[in-house]
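Fold description:
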Amino acid sequence: MPWQAKTGLACAGRAAEQLAVSGASGQVAQVFGTHKLMADLGGYLPCRVVVLGTGGVEEIWCALSVRATDGTHIRDELRDILFASLEARFPEAIFEARSDWPTGRVEWWEAVRLGLR
């Protein structure tokens, strides 16, 4: 796994955790109670995270690109490792693969996971 992706995932995990626990900050936009973060993990892997709090349940949405910022293909195994790391940061959440996005459309180059806690 490229060091950029490892470093970026740690940042994304912390950002998602920060969003889910303490609300919006810094690079995060808060729109109608929805917390959003878009970033290139380690300057290498485009990612977006949305955290929604509805009815006592938090939804943690994460989309990782299948293409790196330089246009090269990201191996499925790398994305699986990154999603597994995100899930490890939220052990109380239940995650599933999705083909939709709560605030708009999913692009063909994105792989999506939803966690509920």
Remarks:
- Residues 3-116 form one domain.
- The first helix runs from residue 3 to 22.
- Strands lie at 29-31, 34-41, 45-54, 57-65, 94-98, 110-116.
